């Protein structure tokens, strides 16, 4: 099993600095850095189709700006975070933020239009590098068609990177499909251990850079990074309760309904009914509802909470500090499956994970999935660390029972917290392939183990095929 063995954090002897230098410097051909220096600028076309990818993309852009020896120019598609780093998005990220199989059908025509628009913009931009971040459905269609167009027009084709490997380990036949990606993906930046090894064994160049969520710690609690056992984010719960007039005796539950409008509209009504049941056991119940940086989602939640059964505090997207302050003030969390389950581990906040989809999508997942869990902590540890209520089992009565038990049962919460420490160790890039390169540059203020810094170095020193 892919994640069956625990990653050795104390490290192997990876050959030392000389091996690293041989691997990344003593090569023939032109690196991306060489091409950029020749042209006097680095042109990066970068595309993300969802909120979590917007954060990953923005951090990669910041790292590239730090590392690039020449001025850097960006074009592509992204959200508010990427725009803060200098991207003028071709269109709002919400236009392509669609997940699921059957859920995609009503949006197919719009997606085709946006795909064509993106391809034409990339051709005009003439990038040295194209980077797609997650959103594999849109990303792989873009990279495949871009490669074909550049070849057809006999243009100097850019190097293609995909950041966040597809979850091949979750699906039947997933690993076999990796072989086909090498036709239009030059390099995959992996965020989970062992993905690099499997990609390479299937002819796909890859680098394990570490999970992007680690950068939340480096930004918010850098003093906690001296030991992996201390890698967690401690928010200011007292200030949060005081600023939001939450009584000391109130029970606070964080609610995280998702980042895409489709899933939020489906999950928020279930969560509302869940909270209605939970308040029978906890009369002084307050919910903190976390809103993703998606304008459609924000508008929907703002309207929906008018009928919310208990007092609610809304946390807008875009503020990591405020988010973790709210999590620290919470007793437990109720989450729609996704990256938020990993954030709960960093905050050491016990949680319950839920998910519903279109019934045909649910049927497809049951038929094709080869793993027993949906939450990444459960998958990596191969254990039901986090209670999950999925598909038909995702009812308000089931969720309420799980939350009430988690709130009352200290041993269950302690078990999740202990498991979180073990889980975080799996996300740390103990094999930092470009460590020697980064450490030579004293002007770089980023910690050398930041995933985005490793990803940026992998891009700059990639040899063009």
UniProtKB/TrEMBL annotation:
> Taxonomically, what lineage is the organism?
Eukaryota, Viridiplantae, Streptophyta, Embryophyta, Tracheophyta
Which GO CC annotations does the UniProt entry carry?
membrane
What EC numbers are recorded for this enzyme? Answer: 2.4.1.182
Q: Name one GO molecular function term.
A: lipid-A-disaccharide synthase activity
Q: Which UniProt keywords apply?
A: Glycosyltransferase, Lipid A biosynthesis, Lipid biosynthesis, Lipid metabolism, Transferase
Catalytic activity line of the entry: a lipid X + a UDP-2-N,3-O-bis[(3R)-3-hydroxyacyl]-alpha-D-glucosamine = a lipid A disaccharide + UDP + H(+)
Q: Which InterPro entries match?
A: Glyco_trans_19
Gene name linked to the record: LOC107417394
| Organism whose genome encodes this protein | Ziziphus jujuba
Q: Output this protein's name.
A: lipid-A-disaccharide synthase
NCBIfam families, sorted: lpxB
Tell me the Gene Ontology biological-process terms attached to this UniProt entry.
lipid A biosynthetic process
Record Pfam families:
LpxB (PF02684)
Record's PANTHER family? LIPID-A-DISACCHARIDE SYNTHASE, LIPID-A-DISACCHARIDE SYNTHASE, MITOCHONDRIAL-RELATED
